[in-house]
Amino acid sequence: QMCIRDRYQRRVHGEGISGCKDFDGEDLEYDARNKYLKQQQKEWLKQQMLEKESKKHAEKEEENAYATQTLELNRMRGMLQDDFSTKKTEIKNSVKDENLVLAQETVSYTHLTLPTIYSV
Question: Is the pLDDT of residue 96 over 60?
Fold first, then answer.
């Protein structure tokens, strides 16, 4: 076994485990770094996919809520329009009935007053 002091001295002097010198520009951590970067890229990609899916789901929910709201508003508008039409018809019928009553009163009034006017 190699003691910690020996390991430290080898690192300081740039010697590898086999006693060979490490050369400047030599990338001994290349494989580990590439593996880490690929793993990190994979995680970012998964995260982006989840975010995209979540955004798509939220947009779909918003569209459904808008469609539901529009249908409900159209239903309410239809009900109000029907109610308005019914009341308008009732008012027209009421005015018509009142006009008939007034016409009958006018006719009966003229029958009562006509003979007296011509008899003088």
Answer: yes
Structure tokens at 94: 């009421």
Task: End-to-end CA distance of the chain: give it in Å, rounded.
Answer: 150
Sign for the CA dihedral angle at 42, 45, 51, 56 comes to negative
Model confidence pLDDT, tens digit, residues 32-75: 889 999 999 999 999 999 999 999 999 999 999 999 999 999 99
Q: SS in 3 state form for the chain?
A: CCCHHHHHHHHHHCECCCCCECCCCCCCCHHHHHHHHHHHHHHHHHHHHHHHHHHHHHHHHHHHHHHHHHHHHHHHHHHHHHHHHHHHHHHHHHHHHHHHHHHHHHHHHHHHHHHHHHHC
Whole-angstrom Cα distance, residue 18 to residue 20? 6
Name the pTM for this structure. Answer: 0.47
